[in-house]
Amino acid sequence: MTLEGELMKCHADALSVAVIHNYKVSDIFTKGNNVTVHTRF
């Protein structure tokens, strides 16, 4: 199982995950075409 495979299986073009620690965003991960931390989902 890979992230790319799961995105294809779900027919998704991109994914973004924000990690929140102590009520603040501590990290942001994005995967996909033309996706940045400023892309709206």
Structure report:
This protein is an alpha+beta fold and 41 residues long. The chain has one domain. The chain contains one helix and two strands, in the order H-E-E. The protein is globular and about 35 Å long. It starts with a helix and ends in a 9-residue tail after the last strand.
List the helices and strands and how they pair.
Elements: H1 3-9, E1 14-21, E2 24-32
Antiparallel strand pairs: 1-2
Give a short overview.
The protein is an alpha+beta fold and about 40 residues long.
Radius of gyration: 12 Å
Q: What string, H for helix and E for strand, traces the elements in order?
A: HEE
Per DSSP, the total helix count is 1
What proportion of the residues is helical, as a percent range? 10-25%
Structural shape: globular
Q: How many beta-strand runs?
A: 2
- How many domains, in number, for the residues? 1
Distance between the termini: 24 Å
What structural category characterises the helix and strand content?
Answer: alpha+beta
| β-strand amount | 35-45%
Mean pLDDT: 87
Low-pLDDT regions: none
Largest sheet: 2 strands, antiparallel
Strand order of the largest sheet: 1-2
Please name the defining characteristics of this protein.
41 residues, alpha+beta, two-stranded antiparallel sheet
